[in-house]
């Protein structure tokens, strides 16, 4: 900062043609300007200005130094204006990550609507079922499901989410239904990307690991397998609620269903969230609060 102050003083002296005018412009004393220039010359080990009682004149070294420094004050002002603009209106690139199916079905249409209303915002939308490191990989926002792990990240609730253990009528007719968690070991279990199922037992969260002959990290593939009677599986409500309502699928062990957890907007901690991040979070939460986004997607099928 001391070097910058000296260069700023030097450029202003050349612009104004005198130490006193430069001092007035920078709101400091002329003696302070003189000391800054002297220290700058000592650091560079050369004379930049020839001084007389009436005028100043650039040396050859001073002329060369001035050519490199003269745009610095304007560049700093432009940088400050750019940052100031960012703190006032949404602009710049938003890097967002989300689980694949939820992102494709529900987030992508809403984000596209958001971009239409905010043309100065660009989007980098990455869909993966892997839990990315937001800070390490440079993401502004992640949409995550279920119970959040303890971390230094901040979060806002986007919507409710519940998991349903389901089977088709054909499977139930052939294999019956489990009545306790222990009886799950007797059934054909279909697994998604998780290594366990989550239930509530005696008011406590209980994770149950089951053996599986079928596994996929794709929610739609898992749903198709349930519908075809290949076994039982646990899926979020937005996958199965229409099949449950129509009777195509049957809910199993409802007495052990874990209470609503949620879908979360998760982002790195910062002193002041950027306008683009705050705007997209506010927009998504408002849309989910005002509309049945899951039903809206189903109508498009």
TrEMBL record:
Keywords: DNA-binding, Transcription, Transcription regulation. Residues 1-59 form the HTH lysR-type domain. This is LysR family transcriptional regulator. Belongs to the LysR transcriptional regulatory family.
């Amino acid at each position: 900062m001391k070097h910058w102050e000296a260069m700023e003083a030097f450029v202003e002296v050349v612009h104004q043609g005198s130490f006193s005018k430069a001092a007035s412009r920078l709101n400091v004393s002329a003696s302070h300007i003189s000391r800054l220039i002297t220290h700058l010359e000592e650091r560079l080990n050369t004379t930049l200005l020839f001084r007389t009682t009436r005028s100043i004149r650039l040396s050859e070294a001073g002329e060369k130094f001035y050519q490199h420094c003269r745009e610095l004050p304007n560049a700093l002002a432009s940088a400050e204006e750019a940052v100031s603009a960012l703190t006032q209106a949404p602009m710049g690139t938003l890097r967002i990550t989300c689980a694949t199916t939820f992102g494709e079905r529900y987030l992508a249409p809403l984000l596209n609507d958001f971009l239409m209303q905010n043309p100065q915002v660009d989007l980098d939308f990455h869909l993966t079922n892997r839990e990315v490191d937001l800070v390490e990989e440079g993401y502004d926002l992640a949409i995550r499901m279920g119970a959040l792990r303890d971390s230094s990240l901040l979060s806002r609730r986007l919507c409710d989410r519940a998991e349903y253990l389901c089977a088709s009528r054909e499977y139930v007719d052939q294999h019956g239904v489990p009545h306790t968690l222990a009886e799950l070991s007797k059934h054909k279990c279909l697994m998604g990307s998780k290594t366990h199922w989550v239930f509530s037992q005696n008011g406590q969260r209980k994770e149950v690991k089951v053996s599986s002959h079928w596994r996929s990290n794709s929610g739609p593939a898992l749903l198709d397998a349930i519908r075809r009677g290949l076994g039982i599986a646990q899926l979020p409500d937005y996958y199965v609620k229409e099949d449950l309502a129509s009777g195509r699928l049957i809910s199993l062990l409802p007495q052990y269903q874990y209470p609503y957890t949620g879908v979360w907007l998760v982002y790195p901690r910062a002193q002041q969230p950027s306008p683009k991040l705050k705007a997209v979070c506010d927009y998504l939460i408002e849309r989910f609060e005002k509309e049945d986004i899951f039903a809206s997607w189903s109508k498009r099928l």
